[in-house]
Design goal:
The structure is a homodimer. With about 550 residues, chain A is α/β, with parallel strands linked by helices. Chain A contains 19 helices and 18 strands. The first copy, chain A, folds into three domains: about 5-175, Thiamin diphosphate (ThDP)-binding fold, Pyr/PP domains (Rossmann fold, 3-Layer(aba) Sandwich); about 205-365, TPP-binding domain (Rossmann fold, 3-Layer(aba) Sandwich); about 365-555, 3-Layer(aba) Sandwich (Rossmann fold), CATH 3.40.50.970. The interface between A and B is large, with 86 and 86 residues. Chains A, B: It holds the Pfam family TPP_enzyme_N.
Amino acid sequence: MTDTARDNVLWAWTLIDALAASGVVHAVISPGSRSTPLALACLRHPGIIASIQVDERSAAFFALGLAKARHQPVVLVCTSGSAPAHWYPAVIEADMGGTPLILLSADRPPELRGCGANQATDQNNLFGSHVRAFHELPCADGDPDMLRWLRALAAQAVDQGCWPLAGPVHLNVPLREPLLPDRPWPALQAAPVAAVCYPVMTLSPDAAHSLAGELSGGRGLIVCGAGVFSSEFPAALMDLAHRLACPVLADPLANLRFGAHRNNTVLSRYDAFLRAADAPRPDWVLRFGAMPVSKSLQRFLDGLAGVPQLLVDCGGRWLDPLHRASRLLRADPAALCRQLSELVERAAPPSWLAAFKAAEHRAAQLAEPEPPPEAEVVRTLIDLLPAGATLFCGNSMAIRDLDAYSGCGDKALRIAGNRGASGIDGNVSTALGLAAAGATPLVALLGDLAFYHDMNGLAAARGLDAVFVVLNNGGGGIFEYLPQAGLEEFERGWLTPLELDFSHAAALYGLSYAKVDHGAGFCAALAVALKGGAHLVEVSIDRANSVARHRAYWEAAGENMF
Amino acid sequence: MTDTARDNVLWAWTLIDALAASGVVHAVISPGSRSTPLALACLRHPGIIASIQVDERSAAFFALGLAKARHQPVVLVCTSGSAPAHWYPAVIEADMGGTPLILLSADRPPELRGCGANQATDQNNLFGSHVRAFHELPCADGDPDMLRWLRALAAQAVDQGCWPLAGPVHLNVPLREPLLPDRPWPALQAAPVAAVCYPVMTLSPDAAHSLAGELSGGRGLIVCGAGVFSSEFPAALMDLAHRLACPVLADPLANLRFGAHRNNTVLSRYDAFLRAADAPRPDWVLRFGAMPVSKSLQRFLDGLAGVPQLLVDCGGRWLDPLHRASRLLRADPAALCRQLSELVERAAPPSWLAAFKAAEHRAAQLAEPEPPPEAEVVRTLIDLLPAGATLFCGNSMAIRDLDAYSGCGDKALRIAGNRGASGIDGNVSTALGLAAAGATPLVALLGDLAFYHDMNGLAAARGLDAVFVVLNNGGGGIFEYLPQAGLEEFERGWLTPLELDFSHAAALYGLSYAKVDHGAGFCAALAVALKGGAHLVEVSIDRANSVARHRAYWEAAGENMF
């Protein structure tokens, strides 16, 4: 006779054990009844670190942060009904940002679907094109052959979530009642799964030789945006850039600006100096990762009709929003850099890199003596963060100000962000997920709307070392720079000031709270907050002043930088 | 030459104007750049009442509440990227609950998709099987024939969202830059659209005659669950039940328990009296709407093998989770009741209804003298709410306690809830949407987890008359009644107490706050709160006491009710 409850426990354990054997360490569980066997297996498995979060949306972004911390797949568990739909924004971010997530949604069995049963909805292909794979499981089955298949499927799901492009994988898990057995429980054991070996993808010797010849001696630009790069990539790229003597325009999320790997080719202030009419035209552009956040860099690249633009990508994506790519190089970035470094024969004329370094220097001076207030906040952050710290940067203005004003440095800082879909959603939880995975000290730099959007996520801050720096410019300040600012409906429909006193949010979630100016006040509050615990540091930004100084800075950058 | 900006404005205006001409009154907008022409058309159209909400998830549930208030389709507008994904939980609730929503997601044009452009993701069929229809629009086109088509499509979308089963319809709206023109703006005018006439669906005379014959004189049970019924339905059903002299077991969300329409056939305490071993077996069951929330009613119906169970539904759904239906009657509930009333020849024996009314009376006595604390809260609510008030009831324990303890009454009270997917999500915003549509005074009865889940939604409370009554039993108290309560991981993995001081949430959003006991304290606080404004009344529930009294009540109901 079928023992449904026993099969449920065995089935869920086998799934979780096989995921753990495939490299999963973290699981984030939202409470529910139907998901009980899955949640219990996560809570009891010795190889799984389980977190609990009531709000599935925050749970998913928290899992995203955990997964980003070490590029390991993280499991999400929730109950049936609308619950898994709350994962969708984080699923889209994971899809576009290349972050591995294993989504385990509990479901009603087939006989309770489409007939008005409680909390039963159509969870088949719930996330459409935004997952690498979808697997509809059968109901729990205690047959040893079925359990063996389930182990293999779990390993396959992790593989699909990791390669060739990391991302979310959805397993829908129907479970019949009774969900839990009376004692005794079935014996639950750990077992191995098939291991997967991944290739190093390089160009053929001929293609690499030919490419190196094209790059050698040219006045080239290397552009590196956000991406999931291997730990060997920074050094490999630095070596290639050094041999080519070409500048590397490094987006903050490329994680090239800060650290001991950095050599003198890395530049960060191109958002300013590429506004200049005298910015020189390169012979070629070699791009890694996503298109950087800088609008002026994008405009510059868009103006380079006829210049070869080469795009390196091994994940199958076509990251060329300008439609200017002349060649896609399907190769591992670090491996390609090493391959090319060995083949490059001549560097660019020394004046080429020197001109860009001079422009970088001039741009750094431009912000003085009256930088935008956000520039001072960014500088204080970079100065005060200890080596090894992680700075999570929110979207909208926060990432643009970090991009423009961070500069570069030898101190090892990790910069993280959600630039897949670039939403202002889930930023609090993603930051806390990074902190929970040990990426501490962790500072999150967010605008007021982004902070509000994921305020529920603060429930996970308890016991973590995390500092939220909220740039409060009274709403969607980024829209001040767009034509919408001229509309009479601007404040109501676009700026949308929240008029919330965030001290109450801090009190609700047990964070310390300080409201400070962007100068000495912020400096002092940050120094205190970095000593440990969970903190909210709200920086009051005078929006009009900020807009004026940003504009003045950009205007100054428009001329004679080279 | 194509004038993109002018076309954008014309296109968006035409779409919104045609939606307004098709009956849309409310639009809920989340701020963004790409959606600017759509948002602006909503803000400027004289026939549209626009609300702004930063969090798209809360915005969607707020729209759901607006749409529920008068069963009118409500427009949602947001920008591209992960933004529309936040609508998904409300879309699922609207799908399953039969609530019309028109989802307008702005999108990047085709040339910015799949190429790494910022905030561009695959929005095609974003909501999968959970919308009645999906329309991918072309980019804005100023050609008069295209604008004429757009008007027709808007009217068609409203039709798809209203009939035969109301629900969400998604229009994805790609827009090219520049989004806004310089002055002068194009002339924007209102124009009509095709009107749609809907049928009255009745059975054929022969079928109705035969059905009436089957029901006549039988010991029947009428069961009515949640549903979107016409305003004629309560009176029509009461008339039929009177002629048949059969009890109507009315779920609170059937909106039959309270109001002047009610006659002596309506019963509310079946969750208690159907637990009795001596509950009599009916000759037939006639069901309207969804399966009611009561588990004991479900068990009772499941035990009626061989008894004809007839299910009335004109929306194309098959709402029979027990797989006990013997016949589906595809007819309009009110029209069918009127049709049958004219044909019914004999009532049941008087003892039949009398036995059920006696059981109802006994069940009402059972809760004395020590009712569960939630029962007292429910009774106070029913007593103190003025005629015409709306009570939004959250899911999990709140709806079960309302179901068990509300009783019936002549005072007109509207009971609302989200029983499509039955999630604890979006409850705050749905309630506020009802209030914003004029369903005031509005009281929302929610558990602590449901209140927390949608706390961001409180941003819309400003200026509304709304009272949130939060039954705080320290987490997911409903799980106490399930086998999970015996697990050693129970508190951490299922109960999940939040340990949040909600007074800070009230302060954050400008609600008054009172923390009270379930007796006199609640009574006094509710009386004050009902005078107007936005209030949070937190009722502390002793979970152990609550569980013990619920169990004692159910046990007492298990014997000799008939």
